[in-house]
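Write out the 3D structure for:
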Amino acid sequence: MRHPDFYRRQAETQAKIILHIMASQLVHCHNLNPYNIWTTLSNIHSFHGCFTIISLCCHFYCICLKHSKTMPAYISCICHLSFLLKETGVQVNDDEYIITITAGLPHSYNSF
């Protein structure tokens, strides 16, 4: 048997989720279990479409380091895009990371 505090915390979590979503999403919050609500909402709003995958791939392979951006910010953008690609089911290997990072560097980084 679960402790009464568990049910109180579960109700608080459900209330926090419901308070932070839009009115159009309330239809997906009929379940009393906050985990099920969260899973349903994340499945609805996750990236899975073909156009989304193509768009993310284009952004990933065409990203360039601009003069106003720092190197850590540039690498962070590449890591974020690869995370989004992995969320859609596209695997990005280490070679693709290296190619993307080096291909997007300006000519001032060319040592040859």
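The two ends are 70 Å apart (CA to CA).
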